[in-house]
Amino acid sequence: MVSQMVLESVLCPTCGGDDVVKHGQSGEGKQRYKCRNSDCSRCTFIRDYAYRGYLPDVKQQSADMAINGSGTRDTARVLKISRTTVTETLKKRSSSPSSQ
Questions:
Q1: Would the pTM count as exceeding 0.85?
Q2: What is the DSSP string of the chain?
Q3: In Å, what is the CA distance from 16 to each residue of 19, 40, 46, 59, 89?
């Protein structure tokens, strides 16, 4: 019996590029990756986040809910994340140069 190795490509969640290298581990021991595309705004990422609040889709949903008038408590309850995460996500979005 011959053992076969399967290579799974890792794509950057921001730019979709495959120029990605391993970049250490998180505190929980999950593999961290770094996108080497110079045009990509993403520095590092983890493929399988342990906490929903770190997912880009959830961050986008919290921003969308804020624009539509939902409060931080409502947003946190609906998305099943902490109020602090919602507040910090909104602070980061309002101070980033791409949001202006």
A1: no
A2: ------------TTT----EEEEEE-TTSPEEEEE--TT----EEESS-SSGGGSHHHHHHHHHHHHTT--HHHHHHHHTS-HHHHHHHHHHHHHSGGG-
A3: 9, 9, 14, 18, 23
- Number of alpha carbons in the 13 Å side-chain half-sphere of residue 58: 20
Tokens of 81: 């994340």
The tens digit of pLDDT for each residue in 59-95 reads 999 999 999 999 999 999 999 999 999 999 999 887 7
Residues 6 or more apart whose Cβ sits within 8 Å of residue 24 = 32
User: What are the residue boundaries of the structural domains of the chain, listed by start?
Assistant: 9-49, 51-93
